[in-house]
Amino acid sequence: MIEKIKATAEYLKEKTGCNPKAGIILGSGLGGLVESIEVKHSFDYSDIPNFPVSTVEGHDGKLIFGTLEGREIVAMQGRFHYYEGYTMQEVTFPVRVMKLLGITHLFLSNAAGGLNPGFSVGDLMIIKDQINMFPENPLRGKNIEELGTRFPEMGEPFSKKLIEKAKQVATENNIKFQTGVYVGSAGPTLETPAEYRMFHILGADSTGMSTVPEVIVARHMGIECFGISVITNLAVSEDMDKGTTHDEVQNAAGEAQPKMTLIFKELIKTL
Fold this sequence. Notes:
Structural class: alpha/beta
Helix content: 25-40%
CATH class: Alpha Beta
Low-confidence stretches: none
Largest sheet: 5 strands, mixed, barrel
Number of strands: 9
CATH topology: Rossmann fold
Number of helices: 7
CATH superfamily: Nucleoside phosphorylase domain
Strand order of the largest sheet: 5-8-7-6-9
Number of domains: 1
Shape: globular
Distance between the termini: 30 Å
Radius of gyration: 17 Å
């Protein structure tokens, strides 16, 4: 694995000459942030050695190098999911590569179901903590000491410093926001009503099928993380038994995207 990570990072360094300090991972329907990036290089995932290929609608499958607010960044327009059949190591492979490219901060977004009864569709939830309900951990197996310690500490999965800055940015720009805990599970089925209730009892405010593995791997390598869930459907409404379609998720994400983009841009500006 380490040789593949190094080979992919070297390939991208040779092709781009870029030295990004921030990585961005964009979730379902949230790829529009790329429009704010001054793009220097763009690669289809299928053209990058050792990269998996995203198979989900709403995930364009491009790795983009450029500048955002004057800072060099690398952005994933579309991510990989455990439910697509990838191993946890494949899901998190790009985060490993971005670390070797030089990033110190990782910004993550996702479309999520709202578990907190105080939430509304379209809300932005700044993620303050996470719960891993996937059937395995991406660090399971032989540890690569070159990348991180065997037992990484997870007391601050999301940077408290960046969370406070984000709250300030949102307040100054009259952006409604929530803060809460995100729970990640395998999917691809959406949760049953009983599972939604269970996750909320466990302490989660939003739920989805991503982010958690990426944050675990990022923290393993000492990368600071900041994440936002866009609440695209509610799991607490009386008519939740009507179900949620993937199109509805993407539409809600698209409407909330400009607000999320503004927060990401203002945070990256301060790095």
